[in-house]
Design a protein that fits this description.
Helix content: 25-40%
Oligomer: single chain
Strand order of the largest sheet: 2-1-3-5-4-6
Radius of gyration: 15 Å
Structural class: alpha/beta
Strand content: 15-25%
Length: 192
């Protein structure tokens, strides 16, 4: 197995542990076990062009997967099409406003400019994934709102969606298809 595969696996495992610990301390509402397997929407993401962000992406994905029951984010197998393409950039973070649907396409750009200004990588990744799941910014807002983004300040490291954010994503993917809410496809640039 190539060294990069081993490193990615180790980084992902560490990120899952970090996200689980973060989610546990933030005390998210438990995901309902009443969601049937057929109603769960699976969205694949491709982070092969997001070098340096692997741990943050894994933690952001783990946070969403731990907090919503009817949509799951999974890493796309190499060479397969993904609904959410995640790339590292030198600019400011931005993402396509969803909800992204199976077979659809969304883009997340994880910009190093925000990291250089002191913002937390895991919060950035979880926030931008929230846009792909259909959530707009809620600025200004407190640290307890994941979608408040940069308005919560550089000391905020919360990467867990609050009850309102979880509910909005659950509603967007209710019934398994998210067909009743059109994705507008706008790129949201998360500047102050």
């Amino acid at each position: 197995m190539p060294l990069c595969t081993w490193l990615k696996a180790g980084t992902t495992a560490a990120a899952v542990i970090l996200a689980t610990a973060t989610a546990a301390t933030a005390a998210p509402a438990p995901v309902s076990s009443a969601v049937s397997a057929s109603a769960v929407v699976t969205l694949r993401y491709d982070d092969s062009r997001a070098g340096g962000w692997e741990a943050a992406i894994a933690a952001g994905v783990a946070s969403w997967n731990a907090n919503v029951g009817n949509v799951k984010l999974v890493e796309a197998a190499p060479g397969t099409r993904a609904e959410i393409v995640i790339v590292a950039t030198t600019g400011w973070p931005q993402a396509t406003l969803g909800p992204v649907r199976p077979g659809g396409r969304g883009r997340v750009e994880l910009g190093s400019q925000a990291v250089a200004q002191g913002y937390d990588k895991t919060r950035i990744a979880a926030h931008e994934l929230g846009h792909s799941l259909g959530l707009p910014d809620t600025k200004p807002g407190p640290c307890s709102q994941l979608m408040s983004g940069s308005s919560a300040g550089t000391s905020c490291t919360n990467a867990v969606p609050n009850a309102t954010e979880r509910s909005r994503v659950e509603s967007a993917y209710a019934g398994g298809a998210a067909a009743s809410i059109p994705a507008d496809g706008r790129m949201l640039v998360d500047v102050r």
